[in-house]
Amino acid sequence: MDFATIRNNLERLGYRTAQYATRHEAAAAIAASTAGLTVGFGGSVTLEEMGLYEALARRNTVYWHWRAGQCGGMDADAVRRAAATADIYFSSVNALAVTGEIVNIDGTCNRIAGMLYGHSRVCLIAGRNKIAPDLASAIDRARNTAAPLNARRLGLQTPCAATADRCHDCRSPQRICKALSVMWEKPAGCAYDVVLIDEDLGY
Ligand code: SF4
Prior knowledge:
The protein has eight helices and ten strands. By secondary structure, the protein is α/β, with parallel strands linked by helices.
């Protein structure tokens, strides 16, 4: 995939960008550039598929609630809170518009909070499947592709988990999408890296 246009647009909006052909190249480069930092992770199938926790945990203290059992006896919520104060925060995105807007839907909302404020560095990682032509398409992708597939992955009792094809705009007690964020451009006071990988990753 040609990432030139999206990289130009992201950089115009204040983000640093990088691209890699494979998840393994990306994980190795990220590990080399973050050694010694405390690291927080949001919930992310992309990070899981990259093996990024394992790549960083060799030389960093990494707080990820998906690995709460490896975080010194902390429960998942304590791990989320520790991740919120780490030096650098990692997340994937639900959709990334070629025009540069970054779209996410969250349930607990630790992921959206972590990518918007509280760190000196944030690294957002997106496989090529997360890219949409414009903001409307990116929001559509987050609502009608990412959220239903994540609801199914989590086994939630929602109509989208049953069909996995679109949002049914439900009010289910287990509704996965409690908040939607659109980053119009890079938030102030923090360095952001957007890492693009030429593979399909996550939902
Ligand atoms: S509003 Fe309901 S149906 Fe739509 S994505 Fe969220 S949980 Fe699924």
